[in-house]
Design brief:
By secondary structure, the protein is an alpha+beta fold. The protein contains two helices and five strands; from the N terminus they run βββαββα. It has a five-stranded antiparallel sheet with strand order 3-2-1-4-5, covered by helices on one side. A hairpin with an 8-residue loop joins β4 and β5. The C terminus is likely disordered.
Length: 153
């Protein structure tokens, strides 16, 4: 066994709600980390992205996303490449290296994926948009956009 007392404070902080998903809506964020790793099966590569919220009540919170940039399933790869293209447009910069997308503000629209198969509910990034000093879209804006899409269908 290992003595942990030298690493821990006298009292541990109370568990918070930092791991609960952010509410659905728009946020100003940057990609704080971007790393390419092999997938578990060893058949491709994942671009692991860590977004950090820049302002508002959730400033400092993070959201994670994984893009299957090299995958035997062509649909999974296509989804990743579309998201990567959206990120390039949002930051107005061609991404040749994972570091090219770091620390450039953008607007992200966030949804919540419900808990399933033993995994807790989590945020999903639905869209990336240019920052342009514009306010992040409100929940009402997103609802109206969704409603107008449903009317066309």
């Amino acid at each position: 066994m290992t003595d942990l007392s030298k690493f821990l404070p006298e009292e541990l902080p109370e568990p918070g709600k930092d791991f609960e998903p952010l509410p659905v809506g728009g946020y100003t964020a940057v990609i704080a980390e971007a790393v390419v790793v092999a997938n578990k099966a060893g058949t491709g590569h994942i671009l692991k992205l860590k977004y950090q919220i820049l302002d508002g009540n959730y400033e400092g919170r993070v959201i994670f996303d994984n893009l299957n940039i090299d995958h035997p399933n062509e649909k999974a790869k296509a989804i990743a490449l579309i998201k990567l293209s959206e990120i390039q447009k949002a930051i107005d910069k061609k991404i040749n290296d994972s570091s090219d997308c770091l620390d450039i503000p953008m607007l992200i629209e966030v949804s919540i994926q419900p808990a399933s198969n033993g995994y807790p509910a989590a945020n999903r990034i639905k869209k990336h948009k240019p920052f342009n000093n514009a306010p992040a879209p409100s929940i009402t804006d997103i609802a109206e956009e969704t409603a107008s899409w449903k009317k066309r269908a």
